[in-house]
Amino acid sequence: MTVTLNGMNTDRKTTSNATVLEVKNLRVHYATPLGDVIAVNGVDLKVFEGETIGLVGESGCGKSTLAMSILRLVQPPGRIVSGQIQIHGIDLIALSERELRQVRWNQIALIPQGAMNSLNPVMRVKGQIAEAIETHQVQRSPQELKERILRLLAMVGLPGRVYDMYPHELSGGMKQRVCIAMAIALTPSVIIADEPTSALDVVVQRVVAQTLLDVKRTLGVSMILIGHDMGLMAQLVDRIAVMYAGNIVEIAPVKDIFAEPLHPYTQLLLASIPSVKERKPLVVTEGLTHDLRRPPPGCIFQLRCPFVMDKCREVVPPLRELRPNHYAACHLY
Amino acid sequence: MGSLTVGYVVRRLGMFLLTVWLGTTLIFMIPRMAPGDPVAAMVSRISAQSGNVSNSAEMIASWRKRFGLDEPIMVQYVRYIYNASTFQLGPSLAHFPANVQDMVARAFPWTLGLLGLATLMSFIAGNVVGALLAWRRTPALARALLPATLTFTSIPPFMLGILLIYLLAFGLKWFPFSGAYDMGGQAQWSWNFIKQVIHHGTLPALAIVITTMGFWALGMRGMMVTTDGEDYMILAQAKGLHPSRIFWLYGVRNAILPQVTALALSLGALAGGAVIVEYIFTYPGMGYLLYDGIVNGDYTLIQGVVFFLIVGVALGVLIIDLLYPLLDPRITYEKK
Amino acid sequence: MSTVTIEQLAALDKTPRWNRWDSPWLNPKLIGGFLLVMFVVLLGVVGPLFWDVKLARVASSPLNLPPIWVKNAPAMFPPPDPAHPLGSESNGRDILALMMAAAPGSLRVGLIAAGLGMAVGILLGFTAGFLGGWPDAVIRTISDAVITIPSLAVLIVISSFVRQINIENMALLLALFAWPGPTRLIRSQVLSLRERGYVQMARLSGASTFDIMFKEMMPNLLPYLAASFTGNVSGNILAATGLEALGLGPTRIPTLGMTIFYAIRAAAILRGMWWWWGIPILMLIIIFTGLFLIAVGLDEIANPRLRGVQAK
């Protein structure tokens, strides 16, 4: 099926082997009066062209920080300590502010978490989408710009009258879809969707999730989808990366991770998903999460792992390919 | 921009009328509750100036009749409200037979000019200073010097006025210390006259601007910090917008809204301050007229001037209220 | 990167708030403002122990003395006299004694009026915020109307009809206009707090309205209340001084504003007797600046974001 957007042929294959975004050994710390909190602890991640990768983990594991770091949007007191973030080979961390502004939205776009408050309350929808476009591309005529915006709105399933409206006149789901429309306006290489459905009710969630799927299929953009709803993830993504306390503990294609979760934390996550079909006992994990200012030596999960061994307390397990294309960081294997 | 709904306009008009009625009733009722009789006081002053008045009792009686002071208080009140609403404020007691409304009409443009311009300048300057103080990109030098503009925030305008007169008018003789134009000058639309007005008006305006600026600056700084924490700022940065665009269209544009509300609320206090400033500078506005009335015990003049001040301030608030939805599209939909 | 143990963290939590090095109450603005105000208070309370306050009476001192540090006083004035270090004015009052007698009076007016205004404000604000409905609508409408009325102008009308006035009555008059500000503030705070989790919990667990008001809401409201009170005191002193400067203040007791009035009436500005109006103004500046700093400091405590934070 060929769909044109902006006059371009956008029919693309879903995945290829080209790496669009690569994160190398990223460390992000938050400064507190009593020492740095390690939010992202040396993360490596590759995103391939056309794929959607899901980033899951519990609250506070660092997934949002990781996403914000890619756009260099970490707010003080947080800061990027070291590492590289490469998009099409360009290191984002090394860029100047002006160069970074050019890359932002053009190459990487953001669908924010709280669309409730992410749109400027005093600007109309048309203005906000227009400025995203005009900042990066010269428009030939106002009429062309208007048509382009209307096409974007249609792509996300919004009626044309939204064009003139103010954010407060829209419902939560509509606002979120405006954000999606804005994000795809420049057909970026990567879209970061930070928990795009978390703040919505179930019915609207489905609509927004469907929109994301449509966007993915039509435009073939790479997406990093952050969330904690494994069930929703399963329907939307190609691969899943599991994060715990600032580290990625497992990455695998979605089917493989559900079929055979290798890391104990992933197993716990999956076990805690309520099931309609079977009765499962409530799994309560023992042990405390460690103080994020002082991660324990060795495996990051040792304090909560039901299978912890002596080796785990001393040596950090590397993220290794344990099955084809299935990586996990655990000494069990 | 947002639109005005009929309901909103009606509510604001109702507020305007309520405020005017409440203030007018206050200035009618309370003096009449105080002991003392204005006419008798005036007659005693006349007799003090020009010797014995032989038929003072009849004089008092006829004057009271003339001013309607011999009727029951409710009748007086109704007549007073009726007259006030048609701007018939009666004759001045001390400058008889001059009419209060004529005297006020002459003084009003001066007050409007001074207070209006000074408030506007103070609002703009103060908010800009406050926004710059909160902005990361303001050069460090500016950020160190700007708070100096706020040092006089905590003193009343008339006190700064006294200082300015002493230093700049009396000491350095750069500015005149009284009046709105040079002595013997005539009010006319000539360049010479306008220069005089600006020259005379600088010190009073400066007194008001310097002392009120700080209030806006501090408020704006706080609002910019609050605005900066909002989610739409993050998205604005993610879109790669230029920082100055974010500063003006996302920061200032949103932070200014509560400031406008605060402006409406502070008009009453600003008017009070301006009254005293005019008295200090002998500026021929309503403030000085008021002082004139106080000194002469001219109660109708005092009442008339204060009535005008109440109406003027309430009108100013009404105008701001009606313009506000143009700034904030959310407002006509909110029911507070 | 510094490291800290769990034990150290636990110990830190037990330290009383005002002893911690990073306690917000150790705000330099707050402390500075407090010191300024205390200076004035002490001047009035302790000063008379060291200086003869009766010199503030009319005709108790030589006339028109400049302060002692003035070197080349114009010839029309007598030379400075160490017995009157701050000089005297043309009614024969010693300025230092006058300041000791007048400054506390100004503070008192502000405190009484603000206290009354605050009390009414708490009462009405809580009522409006809690009950909602038509009591809220009535209270809100009236307080908005009163704020819009130019208070000074109306006070001028009232005072000009009342011939003799003392400090307490003046404070009462000022309180007439001092209540809408606190009412609005408390009402909006109550409205926002009412929906917070802990208040809803208290309601659900059957706590009485009184309990909710005082045990749950008040502690969180204290910084706002304190900042509002300070601003209120400042505003009332301002209004009182304004009235006095026009000659409408108490005549039996010296006050700062009336001193300025007498000075203006005697053309002290043009005669070059700057100490007559300058020193009272200095006292007022100290009072206002002190109160202002306290208010700003309290504001920063109430809104932690303002502490040295820069926006982008």
Oligomer: heterotrimer
Number of strands of chain C: 0
Helical coverage of chain B, percent range: over 70%
Runs of chain C in which pLDDT lies below 50 for 5 or more consecutive residues are 1-5, 308-312
End-to-end distance of chain C: 26 Å
Return the string of H and E elements of chain B: HHHHHHHHHHHH
Overall pLDDT score of chain C: 79
Return residue spans of chain B where pLDDT drops below 50 for at least 5 consecutive residues. none
Helical content of chain C stands at 55-70%
Short summary of the structure?
By secondary structure, chain A is of the alpha/beta class.
SSE map:
The complex is a heterotrimer of chains A (333), B (336) and C (312).
Chain A: E1 4-5, E2 8-9, E3 19-32, E4 35-48, E5 52-56, H1 63-70, E6 78-87, E7 90-91, H2 97-103, E8 108-111, H3 115-118, H4 125-136, H5 142-155, H6 172-184, E9 190-194, H7 202-219, E10 222-227, H8 230-236, E11 239-244, E12 247-253, H9 254-259, H10 264-271, H11 310-314, E13 320-323, E14 326-328
Helix pairs in contact in A: 5-6, 6-7
Chain B: H1 6-33, H2 38-50, H3 56-66, H4 73-85, H5 100-134, H6 140-145, H7 157-171, H8 191-228, H9 231-238, H10 243-281, H11 286-296, H12 299-327
Helix pairs in contact in B: 1-12, 5-8, 5-10, 7-8, 7-10, 8-10, 9-10, 10-11, 10-12, 11-12
Chain C: H1 6-14, H2 28-45, H3 47-50, H4 95-131, H5 133-148, H6 151-161, H7 167-178, H8 180-194, H9 197-204, H10 209-245, H11 256-265, H12 268-271, H13 274-302
Helix pairs in contact in C: 2-4, 2-13, 4-5, 4-7, 4-8, 4-10, 4-13, 5-8, 7-10, 8-10, 9-10, 10-11, 10-13, 11-13
Tell me about this structure:
The complex is a heterotrimer of chains A (333), B (336) and C (312). With 333 residues, chain A is of the alpha/beta class. In chain A, strand 1 (4-5) and strand 2 form a beta hairpin. Chain A has a single domain, classed as P-loop containing nucleotide triphosphate hydrolases (Rossmann fold), CATH 3.40.50.300. In chain A, the strands form three sheets. An eight-stranded mixed β-sheet of chain A has the order 8-9-10-5-11-12-14-13, sandwiched between helices. In chain A, strands 4-3-6-7 form a four-stranded antiparallel β-sheet. The model of chain A is unreliable at 1-14 (pLDDT under 50). Chain A is built from eleven helices and 14 strands. Chain A has helices at residues 63-70, 97-103, 115-118, 125-136, 142-155, 172-184, 202-219, 230-236, 254-259, 264-271, 310-314; strands spanning 4-5, 8-9, 19-32, 35-48, 52-56, 78-87, 90-91, 108-111, 190-194, 222-227, 239-244, 247-253, 320-323, 326-328. In chain A, helix 6 runs parallel beside helix 7 (202-219). With 336 residues, chain B is mainly α. Helix content of chain B is 73%, strand content 0%. Chain B is built from twelve helices and no strands. The radius of gyration of chain B is 24 Å and the shape is globular. The mean pLDDT of chain B is 81. Chain C has 312 residues and is mainly alpha-helical. Chain C is built from 13 helices and no strands. Chain C has helices at 6-14, 28-45, 47-50, 95-131, 133-148, 151-161, 167-178, 180-194, 197-204, 209-245, 256-265, 268-271, 274-302. In chain C, helix 4 runs parallel beside helix 8 (180-194) and helix 4 (95-131) runs antiparallel to helix 10 (209-245). Chain C is elongated. Residues 1-5 and 308-312 of chain C have low confidence and may be disordered. Chains B and C meet through helix 1, helix 7, helix 8, helix 10 and helix 11 of B and helix 5, helix 6, helix 10 and helix 13 of C.
